[in-house]
Design brief:
By secondary structure, this protein is mainly beta. Helices cover 6% and strands 46% of the residues. The protein contains eight helices and 51 strands. The strands form eleven sheets. It has a 22-stranded antiparallel beta barrel. Strand 13 and strand 14 form a beta hairpin. The longest helix has 18 residues. It holds the Pfam family Plug. Its main location: membrane. This is SusC/RagA family TonB-linked outer membrane protein. Keywords: Cell outer membrane, Membrane, Receptor, Signal, TonB box, Transmembrane, Transmembrane beta strand, Transport.
């Protein structure tokens, strides 16, 4: 009896134990210990679910021990956790490149595993680490196939983005789409961005005529549903300094070298006693400032309820220049409001509005007579100030010319101001008509106004070209606007469970219009910047002192896309876009842009099996046609926007003449893009690899200023030759990217990424009558040094090839005559190569002596986390790009870089650097002597951070507090002698916006990108 009674009691307690339920309170953290709001928490095999609130907390009721809960969140691996008590803490594993991640592809999205095009994504986590002042900087070295070059290191200076090389001599920058509308990447606050998606191949054909240069899709941050108000404050401050100084000659070295030069030229030496000169003035130290401040603050408030999400943010960036301080300063303020509302189960409203204001001051740069050009060429023997404390003049002797002036005086007398205000955004409405079918509409807009003012002070630099005989002020105002309206429907369905179909059909209306006005007034009162305003000037000019313009462009488009997959293994999409643009004449208004992409997930095949080594393998391919219409408006019409001056009744009169010669046959520039790629992952998804081979053939290049008959008079002010479809360029290359992520323990994790892109650029056709197009400038009065020519890279350098230094007269006598180049050589002069072998050195011997297009670009990035510490290093390398050294004035008395100390001084002393002399030589003609290998490796960013333990910060109501220190542009490894091997600046095109690659890579004394030391904090409430 007793055993039976005991058994019944045990069964009763056991039953009670198994049936006991309790509430579970949990907290979800990311890898760094920061709470994660909005995480989906679901009880496995049950309908019970919830999401974490602002503090990353959740609560589930009526659970028992052993219950499995499933946690999922975009960007992190889905995790299953067994309940063991009433309190639980879960740390999510980072999986930012999960195959289930949703990727934006334009007018829709796809899971990453289903994407069949060459698409790369940069997330907000990388932006948080890099802390770029401008977003474009974050793309350098992080995405294969994307190269970012700076036009200048000055604050606020534009950066040029090239996707898979340069294929046109017009506008080469990709189109930026911000939340569905065309926008400006450089004006955004980096902390407002959620993701940046780059479409590199035919996947971009859905955008038709604006997709040839690639598409950058920007998704901004939104609030999350069912989350408390979240406040995020990010701040950093730091100081800047030049990343490089050039080793110019000090006063003693300069005087000794100048004496030798004059002596070799048979002239009296200028310095009879050099013993007291010492080092003299280091003009770069005078020009470059140290400890130049940079400050950035931004605040974001976000959250949401069941039906509403919101995000409000503002930012402030203030950056002075390392040259000129606030005279090359930049200040940017932004404000943003993003709102999402579920009006009903069928209607969803989304809006995003951004306001940007910035001011920027600039100095003379990137050309003959720039501030840095003068700092390099003024002799160290001269003092910056006179004995009375005034800025000194540089003598106007023959040996120093009329272009070199005191750079401190140049900075002092530079006065300009530019301010820009822009409001842009979109309003979107989604209507779910029935299951699987959604109708979406969106209105995007941009409206901007800018004002500029430049004051030319009446001043004399002692007979220099910079002398101003009459003070003046030039003021300008520009008003630019555009809007777009998108209406498209998306239908998604499954047929027989295994066939998935998504169809998209829509239309886009785009209009762009604006106007500008510039005027000049003379005789500024008191010759002061404070009175520099046209309303105060009373001077009269005999020449035209004002210009204005107005423009109006429209585009009407229809597009469609069909996506199909079978069991997620066989993937296919086809798209077509029809564009009609007012930029082209009636016969070529309409263009059609089709494309096709396909993919095969090989790892899903039965024959592939389930190996542990290879987890995912996908083959994909694409081919399509895209367009480019980025040329000035009305190129097909004759417009009276030129100037004409004529004499009537004995008086000089200003009139109007035809501007650009019209070309009624203008049509789209066409890009035919082919890509085949392979994506695979192995070692339990720890290593992922993406490889692509591509061919981008750009046909019917829109080339401006194609020469025509001189009878038309294209040389008159405001006039120009027409724009023609007159060229073909091909870029072929290979991209490879590999990423490794490993979590070694709960305390330590690491990720390593490497990417490389190889590109071969070749011009296939130039139909302009001569077979080539020239551009760029070198020295003074020399022929253009760059060309676009069949069989050569775009913008290659065209000059004489050198073959060392003549060591003696016998070598000169045995060599073809070089007299046609300017002078007979003497021992110590440069020996040029007789390329065509005709026994004479002349213009027929010019050849390809280098090009600015890199053969390969690559990035290597490392991120490590140990407990609360995090450390990152981002690097970038460019290999095979050449640059022309054009920052040295060839005048006899100008200063030199110290490599000239290794000059030829006698037979056998040097075979690379010629002698110095004031006598006539041909040593300064454009040749390979001035072309250098500008390959480089740059440590772009190094950062060390520490996140305080949540156990400490949450007591103060803070969910995250991170402190960090970092250095941007830490060091550049290169053999190039100039300031910045990564800079590039080509001649401006007629659109006054883009730069031509024909003439890029010529260094006039680039303003170097500063090295920046930062201290910052991230704090979330």
């Amino acid at each position: 009896m007793k055993p039976k009674l005991l058994l019944m009691v045990l069964l009763l307690f056991t039953s009670f134990a198994f049936s006991q339920t309790f509430d579970v309170n949990g907290t979800v953290l990311d890898a760094s210990g920061m709470s994660l709001p909005g995480v989906n928490v679901k009880v496995k095999s049950s309908s019970q679910s919830t999401t974490t609130d602002f503090d990353g907390s959740f609560k589930l009721s009526g659970l028992s021990k052993g219950t499995i809960i499933v946690l999922s969140y975009i960007g992190f691996r889905t995790q299953e956790v067994s309940v063991s008590g009433s309190k639980i803490t879960v740390k999510m594993s980072d999986d930012a490149k999960s195959l289930e991640e949703v990727v934006v592809i334009g007018y829709g999205s796809q899971k990453k595993r289903e994407v069949t095009g060459a698409v790369s994504v940069l997330d907000s986590k990388t932006l948080d680490v890099l802390k770029p002042a401008r977003i474009e900087q974050a793309l350098q070295g992080t995405i294969a196939g994307v190269n970012v070059t700076t036009q200048s290191g000055a604050p606020g200076a534009p950066l040029d983005i090239r996707i898979r090389g340069v294929a046109t001599n017009g506008e080469s920058r990709p189109t930026v789409i911000i939340d569905g509308y065309v926008g400006d990447l450089g004006l955004l606050n980096p902390n407002d961005i959620e993701t940046i998606t780059v479409l590199k191949d035919a996947q971009a054909a859905i955008y038709g005529t604006i997709g040839a240069n690639g598409i950058i899709l920007v998704t901004t941050k939104m609030g999350k549903k069912n989350s408390k108000t979240r406040i995020s404050f990010n701040s950093y401050s730091g100081f800047q300094e030049t990343s490089r100084k050039l080793p110019t000659l000090n006063a003693t070295e300069y005087a000794l070298l100048l004496n030798e030069s004059y002596s070799n030229g048979g002239q009296p030496i200028p310095y009879t006693n050099v013993s007291g000169l010492g080092k003299g003035t280091d003009w770069q130290d005078q020009v470059f400032k140290k400890g130049v401040p940079i400050i950035n603050n931004d605040l974001t408030i976000s959250g949401g309820s069941e039906k509403i999400t919101y995000s409000v943010s503002g930012s402030h960036l203030d950056q002075e220049g390392i040259v000129g301080g606030d005279k090359s300063g930049y200040l940017r303020n932004t404000a943003r409001l993003a709102l999402g509302v579920d009006l009903s189960d069928k209607f969803k409203l989304k809006t995003n509005v951004i306001y940007t204001y910035f001011t920027r001051n600039t100095l003379n740069e990137n050309g003959l007579g720039s501030v840095l050009f003068n700092a390099l060429n003024v002799p160290a023997t001269l003092s910056p100030y006179t004995s009375t404390g005034e800025l000194a003049l540089v003598p106007s002797t023959t040996g120093l010319g009329t272009e070199i002036i005191n750079p401190l005086a140049q900075i002092e007398n530079t006065y300009n101001d530019y301010n820009y205000k822009k409001l842009n955004g979109n309003f979107g409405l989604d209507y779910k008509i029935f299951k699987g079918f959604t109708l979406s509409s969106s209105i995007g807009f941009n409206t901007s106004n800018s004002e500029s003012k430049t004051f030319a002070k009446k001043i004399s630099y002692g007979g220099k070209v910079f002398d101003v005989q009459r003070s003046s002020v030039t003021q300008g105002s520009v008003n630019d606007n555009n809007y777009s309206f998108d209406l498209f429907g998306t239908y998604t369905t499954k047929v027989l469970e295994n066939h998935s179909i998504t169809g998209t059909l829509g239309t886009t209306i785009f209009k762009q219009w604006g106007n500008g006005l510039t005027a000049t007034g003379f005789d500024v009162p008191n010759n002061l910047w404070e009175f520099a305003d046209i309303s105060l000037t009373k001077g009269i000019s005999e020449t035209l002192t004002n210009t204005s313009y107005v423009y109006d462009q429209r585009r009407l488009s229809y597009f469609g896309r069909l996506q199909y997959d079978y069991k997620g293994k066989y993937l296919f999409s086809a798209m077509i876009r029809r564009d009609a643009s007012t930029k082209f004449g009636p016969t070529n208004t309409i263009g059609y842009f089709p494309s096709f992409t396909g993919g095969w997930v090989i790892s899903d095949e039965d024959f592939f099996g389930q190996p542990k080594f290879l987890n995912f393998l996908k083959l994909r391919a694409s081919y399509g046609t895209l367009g480019n219409d980025q040329i000035p408006n009305f190129g097909y019409l004759g417009i009276l926007n030129g100037e004409a001056t004529y004499v009537f009744d004995g008086t000089l009169n200003n009139g109007t003449a035809m501007g650009q010669t019209p070309n009624p046959d203008l049509k789209w520039e066409e890009a035919r893009k082919f890509d085949v790629g392979l994506d695979f992952r192995f070692l339990n998804d720890k290593i992922s690899v993406v490889a692509d081979y591509f061919i981008d053939t750009r046909k019917d290049l829109l080339i401006p200023n194609i020469p025509v008959s001189g009878i038309i008079g294209t040389g008159a002010p405001g006039a120009s030759s027409p724009t023609l479809n007159a060229g073909t360029v091909r870029n072929a290359g290979f991209e490879f990217a590999i990423d490794y992520k490993e979590k070694f323990s709960d305390a330590f994790s690491m990720s390593v990424g490497y990417n490389v892109t190889f590109i071969k650029n070749e011009v296939l056709e130039v139909n302009n009558g001569t077979g080539f197009i020239e551009g760029g400038a070198f020295g003074v009065g020399q022929p253009a040094p760059s060309r676009m020519e069949v069989g050569k890279p775009m913008g290659y350098f065209y000059g004489y090839k050198t073959d060392g230094i003549f060591q003696n007269q016998a070598e000169i006598d045995a060599h073809p005559s070089q007299l046609a180049l300017g002078a007979n050589p003497a021992p110590g002069d440069i020996r040029y190569v007789d390329v065509n072998g005709d026994g004479v050195l002349d213009a027929k011997d010019k050849t390809n002596i280098g090009d600015p297009v890199p053969e390969a670009t690559m990035g290597f990035n490392l991120q490590m986390n140990y407990k609360n510490l995090d450390f990152v290093v981002f690097t970038f390398a460019s290999v095979g790009n050449d640059m022309v050294r054009n920052y040295e004035r060839t005048l006899s008395d100008a200063n030199r870089l110290n490599y000239v100390l290794d000059r030829w001084t006698g037979e056998g002393t040097s075979n690379s650097t010629p002698r110095v002399t004031t006598s006539a030589t041909s040593n300064n003609v454009f040749s390979s002597y001035f072309v250098e290998d500008a390959s480089y490796l740059r440590i772009q960013n190094v950062q060390l951070g520490y996140t305080l333990s949540p156990d400490v910060t949450q007591k103060a109501g803070i969910t995250k507090l991170r402190l960090y220190a970092g250095v941007n542009n830490l060091y550049t490894f290169t053999k190039y002698k100039g300031f910045d091997p990564g800079a590039s600046f080509g001649p401006g095109n007629r659109d006054n916006v883009s730069q031509s690659p024909i003439g890029a890579g010529i260094d006039y004394g680039f303003y170097p990108v500063p090295r920046t030391y930062l201290l910052g904090l991230n704090i979330n409430f």
